[in-house]
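dumping this here before i forget
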Amino acid sequence: MGEESTEQEQPDSKNKLPTYPLALDCRNYERIIHKEDVFSGILRDALIQSKLDLERSLPEFLERPFYNGMLIQYEVKDDPIHGRGLYTTQDLPEGTMVWNGDLASFTNIRDYVYFLRYLPRELQCDVMLWSYPVKDSDREVYLAMDEGSYMNDGGIKDSNIGGNETTTIRDIKAGEHLAENYYEYIDFEGNVKWFHDLRERVFGSGKYTEQGAPPQPIKQNDYHKMLRTDTTSTFTASAVDYLFREMDVLVESSNRMNMTSIITLSFLVVAAFLTKRRVLFKDKLHGL
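structure:
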């Protein structure tokens, strides 16, 4: 028997990948932690196929085997504050290079949409979340083709990664959340109009927030946990976003109801609120 080939199979114009409808609403999609084969397989294959469709030349990194650009020991975790993020599992001295991966580049919406259509909906939404318009450009958008996409924003105050070489800017202990200052390289002004318009369609907000991306959907129990906590501005913003989302759901439902049902629903909501206030007041009296 002959040996199996170890070379990674790549799509070609005769053996196309399946296509998917374009995700038109990414405001409330499930943000999961993807396995590495999503980056090494699905994303790469989709990008290669889109280049073949458009008769574009392949970037050099697509012609060699995939490698993860993360240069340290790390894990991807999810929490209600940062969402998905990178955490080092080793101590990192100042000046340690953390990431040196490959960036896919897009300069127009046609190339970008051709790429998206070979991805399932949730992955399309993630790609539009991870992609970023390049600072001082009016058309270029980058996407990290590995788990470097999970790197979160820390602003000036909380960043521990920075610079063109993506290195640590201070000593970092094992277990710390890794964050860089998005303002160093991302356009927050909507200058890349084609990307701004696309994001505005699917997320409801074209411009990046101060956290670098549209607000992350949070679970109701996380919302209540936040209210019991000494909240930070991030918590407060998330809680407000949650309330607005709930209001939008109520409004959409109300549009499908008759006026009697709306009045009844409003009465029940007010009654429930007043009942809760009375219970809380009695509990407070008992505690005196």
